[in-house]
């Protein structure tokens, strides 16, 4: 890849593990920043090298805690005030994406608020992966490069050489995503219909479609508490499935997620490193998004098309 002196990579604290791998793809070190923390919890970010006239790529996923998002906002603001030419926020996991609409009265649309904050801070472009809802791109008044982990997942699934493959949507909202994989693999698709009593808790679930003697791939964008995928896997095995694997871009994995996966009937959970792993789990396989992000960042800088990075 071409290295440009006025193209600089910086990282937030939470995503350093991934940013270092992206920088390694270029054979250059990450730019230098520092974070000063005060005794009351307040913190201040600063660049320890000039960014004047540079195109600055700031890499930070905005998973919890909320300080990760605020650190990204401070880094954007600092770059703007230091006369950076362009500021690109690379957000592998876009937090608050599940709050993309008003699903009941008197609630906030969190993802729209985050988009407003990023633009107000001074970002010129946003790069992210597998948004919970495609419409979030329209919340921004700057260009958004929306990438998909399918370019990583598809080759991996192909190498498994599974017979009688069936793609499953873990809920009705995920049918579009699952349908794309089903069409690509020329396989059947089934849908899990679930009813939530409250957030992160699955009440009732049924399978729409035939999974008997099939190898099932559950496709989702996020695995949070793993309640849905483990319940779906158990139900599908009861319906005669040969094996069940789960595939999700963002391993939020909060609360009892690791324990649920470990104890479940799922053969394998395939995720990416948009969010760092908190624990070891022999059932979880992690694919790195660093090469994909590095390639797209280079293309964006050089005003080249990124359509070749989409395989579905």
Commentary on this structure:
With 312 residues, the protein is an alpha/beta fold. The strands form 3 sheets. A 7-stranded mixed sheet has the order 10-9-8-11-12-13-14, with helices on both faces. The chain has a 5-stranded parallel sheet with strand order 1-4-5-6-7, with helices on both faces. Strands 2-3 form a two-stranded antiparallel ribbon. Helix 1 packs across helix 8. It starts with 6 loop residues before the first strand and ends in an 11-residue tail after the last helix. 40% of the residues are buried. The mean pLDDT is 93.
List keywords for this structure.
312 residues, 7-stranded mixed sheet, alpha/beta, 5-stranded parallel sheet, 8 helices, 29% helix
Short structural summary:
With 312 residues, the protein is α/β, with parallel strands linked by helices.
Total strand count, please? 14
Shape: globular
The succession of helices and strands, N to C, reads EHEEEHEHEEHEHEEEHEHEEH
Tell me the strand percentage band: 25-35%
What's the end-to-end separation, in Å?
Answer: 25 Å
> Tell me about the biggest sheet?
7 strands, mixed
Mean pLDDT value: 93
- Unreliable segments of 5+ consecutive residues: none
Total helices: the number is 8
Strand arrangement, major sheet: 10-9-8-11-12-13-14
Radius of gyration, in angstroms, nearest whole number:
20 Å
Coarse structural class? alpha/beta
Q: Provide the helix percentage.
A: 25-40%
Oligomer: single chain
């Amino acid at each position: 890849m071409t290295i440009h002196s006025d193209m600089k990579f910086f990282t937030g604290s939470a995503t350093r593990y991934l940013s270092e791998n992206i920088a390694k793809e270029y054979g250059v070190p990450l730019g230098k920043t520092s974070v000063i923390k005060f005794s009351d919890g307040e913190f201040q970010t600063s660049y320890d090298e000039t960014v004047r006239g540079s195109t600055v790529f700031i890499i930070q996923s905005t998973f919890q805690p909320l300080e990760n998002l605020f650190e990204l906002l401070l880094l954007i603001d600092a770059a703007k005030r230091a006369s950076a030419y362009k500021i690109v926020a690379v957000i592998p996991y876009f937090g608050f994406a599940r709050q993309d609409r008003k699903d009941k009265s008197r609630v906030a649309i969190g993802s729209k608020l985050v988009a407003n904050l990023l633009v107000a801070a001074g970002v010129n472009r946003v790069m992210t992966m597998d948004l919970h809802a495609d419409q979030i791109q329209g919340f921004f008044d700057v260009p958004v490069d929306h990438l998909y982990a399918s370019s990583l997942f598809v080759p991996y699934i192909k190498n498994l050489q599974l017979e009688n493959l069936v793609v499953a949507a873990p809920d009705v909202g995920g049918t579009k995503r699952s349908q794309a994989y089903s069409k690509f693999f020329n396989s059947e698709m089934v849908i899990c219909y679930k009813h939530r009593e409250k957030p992160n808790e699955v009440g009732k679930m049924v399978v729409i479609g035939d999974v008997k003697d099939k190898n099932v791939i559950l496709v989702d964008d996020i695995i949070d508490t793993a309640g849905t995928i483990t319940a779906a896997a158990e139900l599908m095995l009861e319906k005669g499935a040969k094996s069940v694997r789960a595939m999700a871009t963002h391993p939020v994995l909060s609360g009892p997620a690791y324990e649920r996966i470990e104890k479940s009937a799922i053969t394998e959970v395939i995720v990416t490193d948009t969010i760092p792993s908190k624990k070891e789990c022999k059932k979880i396989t992690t694919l790195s998004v660093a090469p994909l992000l590095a390639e797209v960042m280079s293309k964006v800088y050089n005003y080249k098309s990124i359509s070749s990075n989409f395989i579905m």
